[in-house]
């Protein structure tokens, strides 16, 4: 027999014994009265403890478990231990849930927890921003109400979640999201959301790059091949016609050579394999050299101005800086009609130095400005090829500026001209006054 029932059993046996004793001493009625009175007292004792138990069960609190006696002391002691154990388990579960939520909030990807009916139970801040979820408002809502896209509805219905689904964000059209459902628990699901906009953009740039390189090389190769075929098939060609063909072929081979050189330069800059030795650069001498080269390229067709407002130099790689500065100058001359003005400027800023080239050329529409430094991106493809550009100049400039912790700023209006400006940080500035002191 369990110890729990030992006390009430002994109590009842004792009551029965006393009743029999009263019957033996007195009469049956007296014995029955004694037995009834004992039962009432015993019942009252249990009713009072049952009342205390019922009151406590309405608001269980391990610190205020009722204090009983007899079998009720054992029962209340057992309840106290169970309540303490449950309280500890709830505390551990709450801490684990809090750790999970903190970890989920720290994730760079969006996470949405769904129930067995695909209704929203919880999401982290990234998912809330990506899908426009407000937990206070949308908790318990079907996810398909928020993602009203046919392809997502079909993805849910197919229940084939091995591959992610790519969708365009309904909030921001230029945002591409990769979403994937991961089943877990009792028919619950996690919706994992990743922003792959930049990855998709890089992949598009890679495809464009391959296509553009192929096109850029195919055109001069076609020209050279065509003329070689003409020369090999022709029986009678005078020397003037031959020289004309050879000049065209030579021009096309130079174009391919410039393209290959720019590709090699860009590859070296992007990989970081090229030696990058910083040393003091005499910018004033470099500006004078650029100005003379601009005069030679312009051949008197433009009004050129050299505006030097600072005597400071730069700490950097002279060959790279010369390439970057020269790119802006040659672009300004190529895209400025005859009679236009071009100004080369070098001046101090509050937080560094600035080199700029301003022109009164054809200008650039605002929609093209963010993409100017992409490889082979051209505002006007036909004009770029006519002027001898490879489409890699500003891409090279971007990497050179990055290696010098500098930034590129562009201001332009179609028909009014453009200003390209390099901004160098103060840590790159070499002040001749401080150097001489």
**CATH architecture group name of the largest domain:** 2-Layer Sandwich
Q: How many β strands by DSSP? A: 13
Rg: 43 Å
- Specify the structural class: alpha+beta
- Fraction of residues in helix: 40-55%
- CATH class label of the largest domain: Alpha Beta
- How many individual helices? 14
Listing every helix as H and every strand as E from the N terminus to the C terminus, the arrangement reads: HHHEEHHHHEEEHHEHEEHEEHHEEEH
Number of domains: 4
Strand order of the largest sheet: 2-1-5-4-3
Question: CA-to-CA gap between the ends?
Answer: 103 Å
Low-confidence stretches: none
Mean of residue pLDDT?
Answer: 78
Strand percentage? 15-25%
CATH topology of the largest domain: Heat Shock Protein 90
Q: What would the principal axes of the Cα set say about the shape? A: elongated
In a few lines, what is going on in this structure?
The protein contains 14 helices and 13 strands. By secondary structure, it is an alpha+beta fold. The radius of gyration is 43 Å and the shape is elongated.
